[in-house]
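Support reply, case 0932

Customer input (verbatim):
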Amino acid sequence: MSIRATDLSFSYGEKPLLVEANFRIEDGQKVGLVGENGTGKSTLLKLFMGEIYPDEGNIQVQGSMELVPQEVKRDPILASKPQSYSGGVKTKFALARAILKEPDILLLDEPTNFMDHEGKAWVMGLLAQYPKTLILISHDLEFMDKAIDRVIYMNKNTHKIEEYKGNYSKYLKLQKEAQQLFAKQVKGQQRYINQLEHAIKVVGVKTRIVMQRKIARLKAVLPELPPEVRSIKIQLPEPVRSGEVLITARGISKSFPAQGGSALGGGNQVLNNLNFAIRRGERIALLGPNGVGKSTLIKLLIGELTPDSGVVEWNPMNKLGYYSQEFDDFDMEKSVLQLFMDKCERMESFCRPFLGKFNFLANKVHQKVGTLSGGEKTRLAIAMLCSTDANLLVLDEPTTYLDVLSQRVILDALKAYRGTMIIVSHTEEFVNELKPDKVFLMPEGKLDFWTLDYTERVGEI
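Our regenerated output:
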């Protein structure tokens, strides 16, 4: 069982993702697809599956395949009760179903997204026992180290494929060494050209002509050094003043219907008689295992859901900035620019340069939102937050699809934010550096002051 790509090229509009890529994946290999957000990792999985087709070249697949995509909310079995399942539960369901089919090649796109520590351990246990070919995309570096024995790197600058043997840590070491050697060779060649150009000034006419031809040939084959990664620096606007108490929950409860039933008289109770208040300037980390109702509680607090009993009191001075883990309010058929203009209610003359700060450059703003990677959708959502002076940020797993550098950019912006914040995250380092004032524990329904003792619980529960 294998996958073989020959002279594979693919573009989205004028944006090339792959140019004459060649590689082969053999039976039983555990392969990690690696690259910056937006390089086309998820697109490559779709090419493997035959969901889209290359512009040039071909892909030969021998054996059966199953894909567990980033966004599993569209699963037809779960669609009947989408609000009662967390992102982690949906992913577990999709992964278990795929493995039960015993495909020759298993494709996983960010399988630990929205997972707590227990969920990640469960996924790792399944994959450790899987005897066939595995192709994995993940920004969870520890998970990648344990799961793979080979890396396929998608180079954003050359649009080529680079291959490395070993796990993720070994790949980082080998890639750094290769980049340093390449840079040394290019700079050495450039120094030689500079020496020839200096010497040409003092030689005779015939010699000068010969040397000019030689310099032209050398320049023609001189490779370019990859550009430095364009760093994004973002700043959340100064929030408008809020009231002293932004949200008060009084005895709120919420249930979802049991399979085939109604919520009346039972069902799956997610929240029961919660009472608390959220005050101006507080940073609250919402902690709990997958499936206990964190996203449900958030939707109750912002008015997207109605409690079965009790009441949520919303201060009229609140100005909300909301990040949803599943991009529920994105119109996937609109372009990046159209969606941003609609959400922000601003003119194109403001929106295009503003989006450029988030690396949505040139024709990228005309790309359909539905074709963006998870990391790019996250950048777009954060750009929307940064275009408003919201005094209440509600963030449901904001770093899920982001690479390490992008996570740091978001963290720095949130640390400097002076409004009120409610955040859900299973990333220990991220929550700890954010320095929340309080923690809301679920399923206990308890609001407590944050201490470092809660750090381990971020990932473990």
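We compared this against your earlier run and they match. Two observations from our side: Residues 168-199 form the longest helix (32 residues). Residues 56 and 209 are 41 Å apart (CA to CA). Please reopen the case if you see a mismatch on your end.
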